[in-house]
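User: Here's a chain of 244 residues. Predict its fold as tokens.
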Amino acid sequence: MGIFAISSRKSPADGPEARKDLSEQVRARLPHQFEAVGEVLASGAGSLDAFEVTGHALAQDGAALEEALADLRATTLAVVGREPLYAEVHALSVAWSEATLAYLHQLSCEDPLTGLASLAHVRARLSELFRAYGPQVQESHALVVMDLPADRPGLARGDPFARTLRLTKLGESARTVFPGGETIGRVGANRMVAVVVRDERLGRRVALLRTLLASSEHPTRVWIEGLPATDCGASFLLDELARL
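Assistant: Prediction complete.
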């Protein structure tokens, strides 16, 4: 048999398996973190919440997805004598993946190839500013966007190394102009942004950055992008900049 049986949005609540009680003998044999799943299976409640909570908890414990699925299979076999259903596997796997990605995003503050802040870190920095300034962040801060077109010489789509090297140099130039605590991050294959203070020096700094980049082999577009009034709007803006 495969790893799961017929697909269902909920665990089945009908049939003999839905009316069993979870005995102490079976409970004692269940894998770590699977007691709640066993109770749901035995009761026939049909809820997938326990599978999601278990997937999240297993990811936080550092369990591999393969191990989590093996334990899920052992649980369904022990409690209701069948393979896990698709909906049960899906609920546990998605929760495990989301928890794992959230953990990785917390770690991934910096792109290891370029030294630039990751998109997740730029997003987190903007969220911090909105918590501190509210809608007034539109007046206090802005984004400086630096775009390196993919069709420039030496930046063919099939040459990611050349593109990464150029982004690294671009980051160095940006840090020369913005040497303080500004967050400078990569938001796309050929684009980076700096989260900067909107003050009387910003225009001169951007002009200086354009001058530095104009002398390079691959000229780069640079512009000031205003921030929306809400954190959600800023998140949408970053997504749009990352796609273009």
